[in-house]
Amino acid sequence: MIVPPASAFPIPAKPVPTSVKPGPVPSAVPAREGARVSLRPARRVSRLRRRALPSASAHVAAANRAATLEPTSHAYLNGVRVYPYAEGMLYHVYAAPERVTDIALQPGEVLGAVASGDTVRWVIGDTSSGTGAEKRTHVLVKPFAMGLTTNLVITTDRRTYHITLASTAAAMAAISWIYPQDAMIALKHVEGQAQTALTVATGVELEELHFDYALSGDHPTWRPLRAFDDGRQTFIEFPASLAVGEAPPLFLVDGHGVAQLVNYRVLGRFYIVDRLFDAAELRLGTKHQDVVRIARAAGPAGPRGRAS
Question: Which pTM does this prediction carry?
C-alpha cells in the first residue's frame, strides 16, 4: 500500500472570528395574570378626548346664554332697543336682508375697530352724527340672506361691545345703550360742582339744606332732579338739558288748589325762590301740558319756617 506524502493534504486556513452586535431586547411589561394588554393607546386617548369635548362645549354654551341679553318689548324707546351696558355682556341684535340695523354708541365715544366673524355674508360699516362733544358713532349692519349668525366686536376709547348677530325676517331698527356706571359717576361729579357753586353764589351752608321734597306728575325732559331749601329760600335743580330747551314757569299752589305765578331767579340749572312753599307746580305746553308737582313733606314738628 502506497501512502501519499503529507504535503498532499493542505491544512485549512484558520477561520476569522466574526462579531454580532446584539439588537434591542424588548422589555417585558408586567401584567396581571389573565389581563389583556391594549396595543392601541392612541385610539383610547382619542376616545377620551372626544368624550371631554361635549362637556367643555356645554360649559361655553351655558356661559354665553347666561351673559346674553335679548330684546324685550318693555325696553324700547320708540323704535330703539336700549340695553343697559355691563362689561362682558353679550347683546343679541336681529337684522334682516335689505334692511340696515343701526348700532349707536355713546355720544363722544371714539370708535377704535370693528371685527366680525363673517365679513362675506354681512355688510358692516360705520358713520357718525352730530358734532363736537355730541358726535356719535353708528355701526351699520346688514345681512345678505336669512338664517345667518355671527358675532361682532366693537372697541372704542371707553369700552368693548360684544354683539351676537342673527338674520331673521324682522329687523331691529336700532339699538343703543344706557351706562349706569357712567351716570352714577357723572351725577356725583355734578352734585359736587353744583353744591360748591351754590355755596359760593348764594352763601348757603350745606349743613342747613333740607331735601324733604317729593316730585310727582309727568316726566318731560326738563323734569327737576330735586328740590331743597335752606330755611329761607327754595332751590329747584334741573337737568343740563334745561339750557337748550324751553324752561317751564313755576306756580305756587295754595291749600285750595289755586295756582299763582311766583317770582324766581335762574342760576345755572337752578330756580331760586326767595321763600318757602308747601306745594308748587311746573307747567309747560298748551294742547298737551306737562305738569310736575313739587310738594314739601311736613316734619314731626309741623311745617318748617313757612313764609306768610
Answer: 0.46
